[in-house]
Amino acid sequence: MFLEFKEEVEQVLKEALKKASYEYKELELEESEHADISSRVAFSLARAYKKPPEIIAADIVNHLNLEIPAENTLISDAVAAGPYINVYVNDFFLHKTLQKIKEGIEPAAEKKKGKIIIEHTSANPDGPLHIGHLRNAIIGDVLVRVLKRAGYDVETHYYVNDMGRQIAVAVCGTERIAFAANKKADHAVADVYIAANRLIEENSDFLKDVEKLMREYEAGDEAVMRKYEVVVKKCLSGIQASLQRLNIQHDLFVWESEFVRGGAVEEVMEELKQKGNIKFDGSALLLQLEGIEKELVIQRTDGTSLYTTRDLAYHRWKSDRCDRVIDVFGKDHELVSQQLSKALEILRVKVPEFVIFEFVSLPTGSLSTRAGRYIAADELMEKIEERAYEEVDKRRGDLDEGKKLEIAKKVGIGALRYDMVKVSPDKHITFDFDDALDIEKKGAPFIQYSHARACSILMAAEERGYVIADDYDASLLREESEKELIKKLSKLGYVISSSELKPHLVAKYARELAESFNLFYKDCPVLNADAGLRKARLALVDCAKTVLSDVLDVLGVESPEEM
RNA sequence: GGGGUCGUAGGGUAGUGGAUAUCCUGUCAGGUUCCGGACCUGAUAACCUGGGUUCGAAUCCCGGCGACUCCGCCA
To answer: Domain A378-554: which topology?
Structure first.
């Protein structure tokens, strides 16, 4: 509802500026502590009109016409506060906000903004996900949810790097080392991969086998393809299980080898030869890209393709199927992503938008799958759920075992997801196990707790026979904390539309909303209020519950009704 | 050597030109006759440094210092 308010303010301000004959570029509206919305337009006008901004602000306010549409307006007042123009919402806005929430989210179909293909996670299928991948997956998934809610048709891809040397090493390894039967699939693959790497260190002949295998795979040797398929699919099944536990799903798994065997990679190389600035270094092909010193190798001496070339083919294919392409990449791919963009420009393909996130490191140093130095996502989830269970058990000994486990799962995974997404992606994180397991901080459990409190009030109301009805009188909600809560509730749509590629802003809003609810909870008794007020407050609690659970859903966090 | 990102209270973090710089944690002091204390209130304490642009800079530009990272016919 806040968006509607903002639009009306824009409308009204525009008219006033026109009447007062000011030429402006931007209305410079912003949220403010001093008002519900505030405009700084007087500052920029001050220069052009050589008058103090305070005078201009007052002048604009004098030209405002707020009385006419008294029936439908959302604005109560607008005043000049020095150089600022401060605008405030009215009771109708508060009433309308609650009403809209009760009606439910408007169907996304009405405001289709186009199709987006977003790629995230895309971990190599040579072992389980570690905490670095976790950050990628969670940022990506929240992005998906935000964009869907903002009205886009979103398709999620996992790009499977099945042509890398690592996979060949793992596949080769299976010929000498058996999979552990009692392990989760992706972990079993990692064991083989790590053991195979050790074999390489001991015996260089093994490396020749690996290279032979890679050539055969690229050439499309059927027997080799079957061997690959076994390993890659085994690993992916394990990875998918981990992702599912985190509440994450991909629509499509795209294997990079498809682009080689389908001929798309060759087409890309041919086209680059014609359109690009190409150099031959022996028989390898180097592509010179504008503004990047380092040439990009697009073909090896032996004629085989490279990761980047295959990625170009993949991006061309994606780009034909949607309006926007978004890639969630780790910081180490930044140069690659620039090269990719430049090369795509040469091919006249839509350039993707990148969400680049900084690394997660351990207090002991950086991660390495090959060296076996990583924290597996599964291990982390296991521990955080255990930790959550201890908390639940301590506080809710009254519940039965199944219920406690269910809540622990929601709280644990929620805390993990929130922890990963609350920080801006371009911030480096040093992962601290104890810190992540410390559930008491103001993360997901804090928000979930507010939701549970709301549910608890509603349940108690039902037991006492109070009905949650639509004929409440919203004008009875006069307390400051009530009004603040309603205003916060009104901003979900606004936050979603303004934080498209910044998932941490949604996390921030969720926390603020929970804070507002807790303040209301403290200040305003619901069940013990007089009948009229009680009805209005019950309606407010009901709305708060809806929006809390909504925003948690955008974060991919579940909303337990009790905890 | 070249490029990139980051530098905000003791630690972590929000804020990309505008009003008294956000929140967590830490430390200290408080709060429940009332719907769940995983809650709430108060105190403490910060924009790396030097220039520049601007009426106005944590925010933009340039230099310095520091941290991280990328620069392979790997992926």
So the answer is: Isoleucyl-tRNA Synthetase; Domain 1 (1.10.730)
